[in-house]
Design a protein that fits this description.
2 copies of one chain form a homodimer.
Chain A: E1 2-5, E2 14-15, E3 17-22, E4 28-33, E5 36-40, E6 45-51, H1 55-63, E7 65-70, H2 76-84, H3 92-96, E8 100-102, E9 109-111, E10 116-127, E11 131-144, H4 156-159, E12 163-164, E13 171-181, H5 187-190
Antiparallel strand pairs in A: 2-12, 3-4, 3-7, 5-6, 6-11, 7-10, 8-9, 10-11, 12-13
């Protein structure tokens, strides 16, 4: 039975995006964000929505740079931790024993232990209310050679990213089985 | 070994978002988009990035409305098909034997067979180059009662959504195992 219900902000699955920034005193910080996505291919852009209450919001406004790090399933506890506490009270790299690497292209830290990161320069802010969209141009990617396929694209089966189930389950998941090939599986419908 | 590579537009995992719109002649249409995300909680907003070449781009500009339908893994072939062909050449609901239901809140169709859909009113356009972000206020949700938990949130374990692996694998996946609870698993790090 189809129910018609009030608005909800659940888009399944959510990715787990670890946003890297520098604080005004130079300390590297990371936070966990689920609300973001690729926004354009030319120029390559990404958007992440943040509340003004977060330290990351102010860091990006100041540095005009951030990284979007994709954690692997083996780091789900670290990813959860950096979403639970504020960088105003904790040195999150220290607490999680993760290592900040300075990006060569933007003024933001990369998480060394995570499989890959997109390096972003802030190009636009869109205020929507409680959240502001930070739109960054992706200027480079730092990736572990072991997670890339032959064309140097990150391979989801090697990255083993984390999914967040949002309010319906309040849990993290890993990826499951391959269902079929994109731009191919649909052909079966076209030919019947 | 960490490699520093050119920019890429890969954010793993990508969701599979099926965007529902009405054409100027009233025909319902659906397309497959991966580039979108929740953009704000108050007001509840979502963004989807589209190229001007798509029919959906023009439909939303005209109707100022769209739905974001989340398919279940059992419909991955239908989801793939509606991303392979244009609504200018195909009646995609007919071809896939999916059923359009008119939203009561916005001028856009809902896919009856998919577990849930967010009903959206266009509130802002952000031109970024090849893609334009369509930001919609989420005004309601249509969901199958069977996929909701006790608080009426869509439960990822019941929705069984599709993941897209992007260019690294060009394949669809389902969700895997539960890794742990959010806002909880990270406590172990905090107490050591």
């Amino acid at each position: 039975m189809k129910l018609f219900l009030p608005a909800q902000t659940i888009l399944l699955p959510f990715p787990v995006l670890i946003i890297g920034t520098y604080c005004s005193d130079g300390k590297p910080n990371i936070m966990n964000a689920a609300w973001g996505g690729i926004a354009s291919s030319k120029p390559p852009c990404i958007s992440v929505s943040l509340r003004e209450a977060t330290l990351t919001y102010h860091n990006i406004k100041q540095t005009e740079a951030f990284t979007v790090n994709i954690p692997s399933e083996k780091h789900f506890k670290e990813a959860d931790f950096v979403g639970m506490v504020s960088g105003r009270e904790y040195d999150k790299f220290n607490e999680t024993r993760l290592t900040p690497l300075k990006s060569k292209l933007v003024n933001a830290p990369i998480v060394k232990e995570f499989p890959y990161a997109l390096e972003c320069k802030l190009i636009k802010l869109v205020d929507l209310g409680l959240h502001t969209m930070f739109i960054g141009e992706i200027v480079g990617m730092a990736a572990d050679s072991e997670v890339l396929n032959l064309n140097q694209f990150p391979d989801i089966e090697k990255v083993r990213p984390i999914l967040w189930g949002s309010y319906g389950s309040m849990a993290y998941y890993n990826i499951g089985d391959k269902l079929g090939n994109a731009f191919s599986a649909g052909n079966e419908l076209q030919q019947r």
